[in-house]
Design brief:
single chain, 3-stranded antiparallel β-sheet, two-stranded antiparallel sheet, 7 helices
């Protein structure tokens, strides 16, 4: 019986070293080697201070900045929720100030699945150009050029739609002045 206990303890220790130390170190090393930006958390630094992560949506409400999608963090609405319908109507009324006519970008009315999406559609960013330019005293052409320069293509050129990272765009906007 002592032999079986010894084998069990040794097996447990070997697996613990292998699965709790060696494997995580191997995966972390591979991530650092092949995806260094993502492995570091895609943190964005300015003057040596962390200003945010490019992978997590940041709240911006000032007229001087591009606004992100509505956030679903902290609440969970179902598709038939009255509260969701009211929130979408309120968002639509606010957005009509920027685009009185035509179709509003759906991503500015609906939250992402996680509620932390850092991206908006190029159309949603372009819709906000006039407001941001006026609030900053910039020409709409300069702000539009900045937006178009921050449009990211689909992942690996295949998956998804073109998008604009709101945090990166707003940081570049701050660099204009």
């Amino acid at each position: 019986m002592f032999k079986l206990i010894r084998q069990s303890v040794l097996s447990t220790l070997c697996l613990a070293v292998l699965l709790c130390a060696a494997y995580p170190m191997l995966v972390t090393g591979a991530a650092d080697a092949f995806f260094p930006k993502e492995a570091a958390g895609s943190l964005i630094l300015r003057d040596g201070a962390i200003v945010g992560s490019a992978l997590i949506g940041q709240p911006f409400s000032s007229a001087k900045y591009f606004h992100p999608r509505p956030s679903a963090a902290g609440y969970n609405y179902g598709p038939t929720s009255k509260a969701l319908a009211e929130r979408v109507r309120a968002s639509e009324q606010e957005l009509r100030a920027e685009r009185p006519e035509g179709v509003l970008p759906v991503d500015m009315l609906t939250a992402s699945g996680s509620g932390l999406d850092p991206h908006i559609s190029p159309d949603a960013a372009l819709m906000q150009v006039r407001r941001v330019a006026e609030a900053r005293g910039l020409s709409p052409e300069a702000v539009e050029k900045l937006v178009r320069g921050h449009v990211e293509g689909p992942e690996w050129g295949v998956w998804g739609e073109p998008k604009v990272n709101v945090l990166r765009l707003n940081l570049a906007l701050d660099e204009l002045r």
